[in-house]
Amino acid sequence: MKILPFLLALPFFAFSCNTKISEEDNIPTSKTELLTSLSEIEDTIKQETEVKTEIVSSEISLATKPLLIARGSEPGWYAEFFKDRLRLLLDYGKDSVFVEANFSDVVKAKSFKSSYTKATAGKGKTKVIALAIVIDIKSCTEEASGDKRERTITLKYNGKTYRGCATAK
């Protein structure tokens, strides 16, 4: 009785697969061929994963290592200078500015001065700004914490002046 359902299903399985297999499909015909092909696939996946991991980790390391960090108080603001961009949070985070530019000299220069008129507003949109940055290698004491820093920074953003201290990383 247990064999009856199997015998009834056997013709269905025998005739339901009508896909033709050609020699180009490279289907392994022995256990050795199967293991070899699986090994080749595994090696390819491993190589692709290693390359992608290297790319992602280098992007992460660039994204997470600012060259210079600056901050000030009254009103509170914070800036991170990366090699290729600036992330600026102003007025206790109420406003944010992302400037894509070359900031690789921000740490090397004795005095860094620059101005920008375009910034990213988020979602790929650009906004017009007036931003001037002046960074000098001059001892600075943070007002809020009293910590000593090696640089002073002054930002002028849309007519408002922000002063603070900066530290190279």
Description:
The protein has 169 residues and is α+β, with helices and mostly antiparallel strands. It is built from 2 helices and 10 strands. A hairpin with a 4-residue loop joins strand 1 (68-72) and strand 2. The chain is elongated.
List the helices and strands and how they pair.
Elements: H1 3-16, H2 31-64, E1 68-72, E2 77-81, E3 85-90, E4 95-100, E5 111-122, E6 125-136, E7 140-141, E8 148-149, E9 151-157, E10 160-168
Antiparallel strand pairs: 1-2, 1-10, 2-3, 3-4, 5-6, 6-9, 7-8, 9-10
Question: How would you describe this structure in keywords?
Answer:
single chain, 169 residues, alpha+beta, 8-stranded antiparallel β-sheet, two-stranded antiparallel ribbon, 2 helices, 28% helix, 39% strand
End-to-end span in angstroms?
78 Å
- Helix count from the secondary structure assignment: 2
> Share of helix among residues?
25-40%
Low-confidence segments: 52-61
Q: How confident is the prediction overall: mean pLDDT?
A: 78
Shape: elongated
Cα radius of gyration in angstroms: 31 Å
**Order of strands across the main sheet:** 4-3-2-1-10-9-6-5
Strand content: 35-45%
In short:
By secondary structure, this protein is an alpha+beta fold.
